[in-house]
Amino acid sequence: MMVAAAAVVVLAVVVGVVLVARPTPSPPVDSGQLRAAITTSAVTAHLEALQRIADANNGNRAAGTAGYAASVDYVEARLEQAGYRTRRQPFSYDRPDFTRAALLRTMPTRTDYVVMRDYRPLAYSGAGSVTARVTAVDLSLDGDRTTTSGCEASDFTGFPPGNIALVQRGTCPFAAKVDHAVAAGAGGVVVANQGDDPSRLGLFAGTLGRQARVPVVATTFDLGAEWAATPSTTLRLTVESTVKRVTTENLIADTPAGAAERTVVVGAHLDGVADGPGINDNGSGVAAVLETAVQVLELGVQPRNRVRFAFWGGEEDGLHGSGHYVAQLDDAGRRGTARYLNLDMVGSPNPVASVYGGGPGSGWPAGSGEIQTVLTDFLTSQGVTPQAVSFRASDHGPFLSAGIPVGGLFTGADDGADPCYHQACDRVETIDSEMLGLMADAAAHATLTFAQSPA
Fold first, then answer.
1. 57: cis peptide before it, omega within 30°?
2. Which of 17, 100, 299, 411 could form a disulfide bond with 403, CB atoms 3.0-4.6 angstroms apart?
3. What is the pLDDT, as a whole number, of residue 187?
4. Distances from the Cα of 172 to the Cαs of 147, 148, 179, 198, 207, in angstroms?
5. 274-327 pLDDT, tens per residue?
6. Residue 392 lies in domain
7. What's the CA gap between 341 and 398, in Å, rounded?
């Protein structure tokens, strides 16, 4: 899952979308045979293959790397072995990175901090160097630590121009906090982790989504609290950044049968972050989608509607793969996409079974609520009451903005659900196999339901 600019679950707002035709509610289908064919051991075997690929390629499968290229090769080989004709969809984008960073406390005592241990630049941090006092902005360091630190321009009333703003993670996008800080004259910004949960104490990765004018770094909750407690804290913050052009690709495979004008797209992002192998995020979604695709042909399923299985690149850098795919659709292609089903992180170590979509009044495209209902009803029938969530920080986001009905499955990232989120420990051995199997079954059931829908 892409590094969200705030909490993982945020309210989705859709504006200016091109609405597609409302799909007809799908009749019940018997997905038992398909689900029986999709075994947890087979899904896990795909994860193990992706783990081996990461281990052989500097520990990661990030877009634009040899690890990602090998991941595409693996998924393509399995699809073609099953009988699909695949196609690759190349695209390019700019990825920001830092070439050097330094953080030094000069007062009240001198301390050199270590990059990637004590702090790390946020993606799209501005370049530059600033030495200034730290000014804490509306922090919440005690109690439940719920905070809107930096989310309102008024938080910076009286902020000393030139100082470094210390804000706290939570509630709103990082970019909003930085925009308000810059407007108040901040020479740099430090975002401390929120500290409201054990998984939100340490160092974290994040993105601003667009270039900032000042250096911006993340740090741990404890360091943020330490600096806030000492009004004389003065930091020297330096970030040197660059922009790299990344060329990568999506992988797409269609069922041979089914009406193209009622295409059901089922997708998952195949890339991971540079910091780890990306097995829950998002080898888990890839494995479930891949095994569903394989078994659909193995069983000779004849879908009424074409099913397109898509494996996206560049998700972690900003939904680039799915965004490129949607941008390439013409009006007929958008109208002909009946639904999009997304799987992102479906084997979290401490899982919270969750579904997303949107019913009446949600602002989501018509038909999204049906996807959520189908997933919810299936999980409930299996003895699990799922949590309904609403966010757009994954590959359903571009479809959502295009007015295409969307929905999906998720088992949690922050709040303790996955302590290895975006870290080197996101490996096969941390996966909750039981939840992974259940989510694969739910995905298969929904895929078959919408594949056989009359419209």
1. no
2. 17
3. 98
4. 10, 7, 12, 20, 13
5. 999 999 999 999 999 999 999 999 999 999 999 999 999 999 999 999 999 999
6. 32-84+255-451
7. 12
- The residue written with tokens 């209902």 in the block is 373
What does the alpha-carbon distance between residue 81 and residue 59 come to, in Å, rounded to a whole number? 27
Residue 197 domain-assigned? Answer: yes
Contact between 402 and 18 under an 8 Å Cβ cutoff? The reply is: yes
End-to-end CA, the chain:
30
Query: What does the block give as tokens for 36?
Result: 């029986």
Number of H helices, E strands in the chain: 11, 14
Q: How confident is the model at residue 4 (pLDDT cuts 50, 70, 90)?
A: very low
Q: What are phi and psi of 52, to 5 degrees?
A: -60, -40
pLDDT of residue 15: 32
- Which two structure tokens, joined as six digits, stand for 162? 């030139």
315 is catalytic: yes
- What distance in Å separates the CA atoms of residue 322 and residue 311, rounded to the nearest whole number? 9
Buried b / exposed e along 20-43 (16+ C-beta atoms within 10 A): beebeebeebebeebbebbebebb
- What's phi and psi for 234, nearest 5 deg? -125, 130
Q: Residue 352: inside a domain, yes or no?
A: yes
Question: Are 114 and 208 in the same domain?
Answer: yes
Residue 248 falls within a domain, yes or no?
no
DSSP β-ladder status, 406-410 and 354-356: antiparallel
Tokens of 46: 């795909």
Q: Which letter does DSSP use for residue 281 in this model?
A: I
Decide: residue 234, CB within 10 A, 0-12 exposed, 13-18 middle, 19+ buried: middle
3-state SS, 15-74, equals: CCCCCCCCCCCCCCCCCHHHHHHCCHHHHHHHHHHHHHHHHCCCCCCECCCHHHHHHHHH
Structure tokens of 134?
Answer: 């730290």
Among residues of the chain, what percentage have pLDDT more than 90?
83
Q: Is the pTM of this model over 0.90?
A: no
Q: What is the residue-wise DSSP string for 191-216?
A: EE---SSGGGSS----B-SS--SS-E
Given a cut of 80, whether residue 61 has pLDDT beyond it is yes
DSSP one-letter code for 123: B
Pairing of strands 119-121, 406-410: unpaired
Active-site entry in 76, 152, 261, 315: 315
CATH of the domain at 119: 3.50.30.30
The residue among 173, 208, 243 that closes a domain is 243
Q: How many domains does the chain have?
A: 2
**117 CB neighbour count, 10 Å cutoff:** 10
DSSP 8-state assignment for residue 376: H
Residue 18 has a pLDDT of 39
Structure tokens at 391: 């966010």
Residue 171 token pair: 């509630």
